[in-house]
Write a structure and sequence with these properties.
mainly alpha; Ferritin
Length: 154
């Protein structure tokens, strides 16, 4: 893969992470409960960590090994998969924020998984496979939070 192509891939991934940071930051401002704020702040920090690692790779390709978790596969709970897609409004309640965020993590997971499959057999492919698992882990956390805070209340 040419230097220009892999840089474009990394630049696109950085944009994806920036969008997630923006979304979680907005949700953090609108969160009412202290526990929700802690949870969303953690997600902002994790996505910021992804962005920083991707930016480091732009400067030094050997940093690719630092991208993504090195743990095993994460379970997809699929709690929000059948729920209707609704745009996130400024006055969205916590449940709507969790559903939107979990669906966003699913699409990010799919994006990174597609990159990993297209780059199969390369170091970059392995790194995007690990990053996809991290994004699926975020979806898992969001779905557990949704189950604990929203479904349990109803």
């Amino acid at each position: 893969m040419s230097e220009q192509n892999w840089k474009k891939i990394i630049e696109a991934a950085i944009k994806v992470e920036e969008q997630s940071i923006t979304m979680y930051s907005m949700a953090l401002k609108n969160a009412k409960y202290p526990s929700s704020k802690v949870f969303l702040k953690q997600l902002v920090e994790e996505e910021t960590g992804h962005k920083k690692k991707l930016e480091a790779i732009m400067k030094d390709k050997t940093k690719i090994y630092e991208l993504g978790a090195h743990g095993g596969a994460v379970q997809d709970l699929k709690i929000v998969d059948t729920l209707k897609d609704v745009p996130l409004s400024k006055d969205a309640d916590y449940g709507a924020i969790l559903v939107y965020a979990a669906k966003r993590e699913k699409s990010t997971y799919d994006y990174y998984r597609t990159l990993a499959m297209g780059l199969k057999g390369t170091k970059m492919g392995e790194a995007f496979s690990r990053l996809a698992q991290e994004e699926l882990g975020h979806k898992n956390k969001l779905e557990k939070e949704y189950d604990d805070c929203i479904l349990t209340e109803n």
